[in-house]
DNA mismatch repair protein MutS (Microcoleus anatoxicus PTRS2), 875 residues
Amino acid sequence: MPYTASTPTDPHQANIRNADYRLLERNKLTPMMQRYVEVKEQYPHALLLFRVGDFFECFFQDAVTISRELELVCTSKESGKEIGRVPMTGVPHHALDRYTSMLVEKGYAVVVCDQVEDAAIAAREGRQVKREITRILTPGTLTDDGMLKARQNNFLAAIVIAGTHWGLAYTDISTGEFVTTQADSLEQLNLELLRLQPSEVLVPSNAPDLVTMLRPGEKSDGLPECLPSSFCYSLRSQIPFTLGEAKQRILQKFKVRSLEGMGCGQLALAVRAAGGLLQYLEETQKGNAVPLQVLHTYTITDFLTLDYQTRRNLEITQTVRDGVFHGSLLWAIDKTSTAMGGRALRRWVLQPLLNIKGICARHDTIQELVEDNYLRQDLQQLLRQMYDIERLTGRAGSGTASPRDLVALGDSLAKLPELGAIAAQGRSPYLKALQNVPPILAELATKIHAHLVDEPPIHLKEGGLIRSGINSLLDEMRQTASADQEWIAHLEANERKRTGISNLKVGYNKAFGYYISITKSKVDQVPNDYTRKQTLTNEERYSTEELKQREVRILTAREDLNQLEYDIFAQVRAEVGEHAEIIRNVSRAVAAADVLCGLAEVAVYQNYCRPNMVESREIKIIEGCHPVVEKSLPPGFFVPNSAFLGREAALNRPDLIILTGPNASGKSCYLRQVGLIQLMAQMGSFVPAKAATLGICDRIFTRVGAVDDLATGQSTFMVEMNETANILNHATPKSLVLLDEIGRGTATFDGLSIAWSVAEYLASEIRARTIFATHYHELNELASILNNVANYQVTVKELPDQIVFLHQVQPGGADKSYGIEAGRLAGLPTSVIERARQVMKQIEKHSKIAIGLRKGVKKEGKEEADSEQLDIFDT
Ligand SMILES: Nc1ncnc2c1ncn2[C@@H]1O[C@H](COP(=O)(O)OP(=O)(O)OP(=O)(O)O)[C@@H](O)[C@H]1O
């Protein structure tokens, strides 16, 4: 997209470019500029980037200039050194994201604005271009690429097996989180591994079949077909994984007397897995990289089970088609301000709760934050200024934190009392948890700030990281060093005077140290006490005895000084590391509050409602929406739809809905939206609906679309049947089952028969709450046979030459597919369309006869073969 960075289209922008923004009258600024001014006040180096479609347009900022080649040149204010360049012509935003991440990591704040209106149209109509701030990225938050990286865990896992039971332990090596649990089946274990996506899994040598199973691309019974490509395993034959050794190792590592207090005393397999993992960490030194925090235990069955297909089909963390974050549920609801909040949200979304009390505690907090805008905004404003406390603490504990890391941690810890004071205005336990900040954290923050300068250098050897007045020896050494520096500084003037050489210069380079430079034409004026050091084309370089001595003193003093500064810094870092566990506990509370503030923000802006959670099997959604599709359509374009499921004695609601409707009418969207609303409610979020009453689900199953699994050599139909079999074998009356076009991957009658029997089994045997989207209109017959089945259809309006999709779900079955119509619209040749119509008439005739036969209406002259072929409806 052609544009020039130097011609701003927004007059405010031009004003601000030339003026001190603080002098501008705030009420004359657009809301966007007011927001920018606020950010600018907090972060003087903030950048402002405008995004137009897929490209970004222009910016202004004092520390950034535009080069002649129209490049955005970012320079560091402190060192004056260039830190990055971005070409300004047609930068796709994914490339921009990399740069903004880099800038944010370097301590800049970046304000990204979307131009929501075409500049040319606005100019023609004499209006200002409307823009809105989409993201404010401050240190501690990152752009999509960087953000995703920072918001993902970095797990290592170990598993042990005993019969059909499994022990699982994992640790996040960037935060030190250490968790162990037990799985009662291979399926449970697989689901946990898929949720965690560990980069390495340790398997004991007595489980050779596991090695095959965990190898990507190789299918084995019970294992989801698709393991992440990053997935790898290690066979650690030398790891004993024995109970006695494991216990001892855990007690030693976590410095506790008994395992009972950790909740895993009874979980022999979990303990063995933890012991094996600990041993591996010690052997490979990975354990020293991060001090592990106290071991946690959880029960897998305490959470809603989301299998691999459901995570994929509901597009929870990434989209099905492109496998990207943008367009997923997480993308639609992630308004967290910190990376640790982002990681917590990812956990919540993949582990929705089963316990109503726990869910309601989250809903209560969101309600409070929705009702009190000031409380939420104040909390978020502070949260945005916080860095990733969890990871910084991990680094402090492992001795890898840089001075900047420590200052960032100190800044964040210093904000905790203020955060607690704001949270004190709230009532919910999540906010109360922020109030009890242990005083030691404020002490640590004070200590960091008292010792380290506000902006320490990136490289330790640059020195100058410790404040003066902290250590008398350091101050003394600095004084001596500065006297020597001063002597050097005056040397040039003194030597010019002494020698009469007016262009004499004093310089320094790494190889030769300090030198006096004289041009070739003046070498005859060089005094006798000068000794030659280096000869260049146009100059000679000299030194003197005194300069040599000073140089030795300066360099040694610099080394000593740096060492002393480093020792002081390392001492402060170690002290912070000793309190890692306390800091982590607080950071978990901060992350949870961040998630809830974000969810409350989404609820306010997207107009979500608080779901009423009940123990029954009821699912009642009034005017529900798909959170992602709704967000991607212009306001008011999404057609909300209600859903009623869960038959109870007193209520005439169906357990199974047969959903029919033409292609592209919105069946899949409706199906997914019901699943997403249920999932969102159970993770503790408000939901996109006018009202919702939701019974807890133990599992959500989905079967949407069909893809070949070439890696495992499975056909479309086999994938479909495997997934369906898994659902029928595991669904319970408390499950929610979402099926999209079962039986499409095979011959029509086989497919129809399978679809019929699957629906029948779900409704009459399992009685799971099910939505069954299908193009087989014959399935509508089920509703007249089973009283817990109902027919719904997505409506369309038929005009003479086109079909209008109303996207409205209404009771009743559709009797027309409009598939041929869709083909016509897509441009199939007229002769093909005509022929298709003829063929369809024939097929319809047969189908009617078939249904007639089932109802016992014998048509005259019907051939025997027909009745045999269509006997499938007899139960
Ligand atoms: N409630 C709705 N309001 C507005 N637009 C919708 C709604 N539901 C779906 N759509 C739009 O219609 C498009 C098609 O929807 P969807 O894929 O769910 O149709 P479908 O009936 O499942 O089609 P097919 O049978 O071909 O798979 C979606 O991409 C979406 O943009």
Summary: The chain has a mean pLDDT of 75. Residues 12 and 29 are 7 Å apart (CA to CA). The first helix runs from residue 11 to 18. The radius of gyration is 34 Å.
